[in-house]
Write a structure and sequence with these properties.
Blueprint: E1 2-6, H1 11-22, E2 26-31, H2 39-50, E3 55-59, H3 65-74, E4 79-82, H4 91-94, H5 96-117, E5 121-127, H6 151-170, E6 174-179, E7 182-183, H7 192-201, E8 206-208, E9 215-216, E10 219-220, H8 221-232, E11 246-251, E12 257-258, H9 259-270, E13 276-278, H10 294-300, H11 308-323
Parallel strand pairs: 1-2, 1-4, 2-3, 4-5, 5-6, 6-11, 7-10, 8-13
Antiparallel strand pairs: 9-12
Helix pairs in contact: 1-2, 1-8, 3-5, 5-6, 7-9, 9-11
Length: 325
């Protein structure tokens, strides 16, 4: 297939591109290479992709309506994998317009491009953040998600609603994937496992929010990408006769880990104990996430399974090699 992959220089995007190329797809990757975190890391992710014959890259911002319309007009994509977004829960509190532009307007431009040019499937990134303050565990796709606790979460819920509208009106198959705390090599520096590793190696204390009383459903990057590809290859169909070709799936490890155990995995992989600074809960955060993956397994026969210990060890090896520490 010829695939448009947005956010190609991002953590999940670069890994997804590698897998698509490895199986013989051609990929046009786009990214705006913004400065939310170190652009050099984004460029380093792109470098091995750009040497492969099936990959092309254009620096395009999905929030640029004219540029996106021209992009869709120049190419005929068999499918679209939309991973570009302004990420981060806490950053959305201090920089809300970045989320309005990228996650709302940008997603609208993707939907309009698909409406006009009709790829067979649009797969896009949603987030476990949409579950907000829900306390019923595990989180299931049928749960109400009407009470987001961050603007980031609200934009991801809005994406799901927007996609449903286009699926309904234009018979566009769309599938949203609610990612649960993705980690692994080439990850984002603003994520806890990355910043914890950096702090420990530099001899600085780590900040442990909610006094460590948190749980997360950590999901290894290879599991996420496997889920993306399997879903991509099975376009959404209506769940009920006469419904829209629209689906939503969780991708999580189905095994929430206490934050202190998570920190212990990092300490073991590094061979160093962290100095811990215990702090209250941050605005926009939630105490626990826990994914039910039954629906994903029923749809494509897959559920993430990489043990946290193994995934953290692989990340630490990459971190030491990349940063030469």
């Amino acid at each position: 297939m010829h695939i448009l992959l947005t956010g190609a220089a991002g953590f999940i995007g670069a890994h997804t591109a590698q897998r698509l190329l490895a199986r013989g797809d051609t990929v046009l990757g786009i990214d705006n290479l913004n400065g939310y975190y170190d652009v050099a890391l984004k460029q380093a992710r792109l470098k091995p992709l750009q040497s492969q014959p099936g990959f092309a890259f254009e620096q395009v911002d999905v929030a640029d309506r004219e540029a996106m319309a021209k992009l869709f007009a120049r190419h005929r994509f068999d499918a679209v994998v939309h991973l570009a977004a302004q990420a981060g829960v806490r950053y959305s509190i201090t920089n809300p317009m970045a989320y309005i532009d990228s996650n709302l307007a940008g997603f609208g431009h993707i939907l309009e491009g698909c409406r006009a040019h009709k790829p067979r499937h649009l797969v896009y990134a949603s987030s476990s953040s949409v579950y907000g303050g829900n306390t019923k565990m595990p989180f299931e796709e049928t749960d109400a998600v009407d009470h987001p606790v961050s603007l980031y979460a609200a934009t991801k819920k809005a994406n799901e609603l927007m996609a449903h509208t286009y699926s309904h009106l234009y018979n566009l198959p769309t599938t949203g994937l609610r990612f649960f705390t993705v980690y692994g090599p080439w990850g984002r520096p603003d994520m806890a496992y990355f910043s914890f590793t950096k702090a420990v190696l530099e001899g600085r204390p780590i900040q442990v929010f909610n006094h460590g009383k948190m749980k997360r459903d950590f999901t290894y990057i290879d599991d996420i990408v496997e889920g993306v590809l399997r879903v991509l290859d099975k376009p959404a169909t209506p769940e009920v006769p006469g419904g829209a070709p629209y689906r939503i799936f969780n991708i999580g490890n189905n095994d929430p880990v206490p934050l202190m155990d998570f920190i212990g995995c990092i300490e073991n992989a590094l061979g160093q104990e962290a100095v811990k600074e215990f702090l209250p809960m941050q605005d926009g955060d939630v105490p626990a996430t826990y994914a039910s993956t039954d629906a994903l397994h029923q749809w494509v026969g897959f559920a993430p399974s990489t043990p946290l210990k193994d995934g953290i060890e692989r990340f630490v090896r990459w971190y030491r090699d990349y940063h030469r520490v």
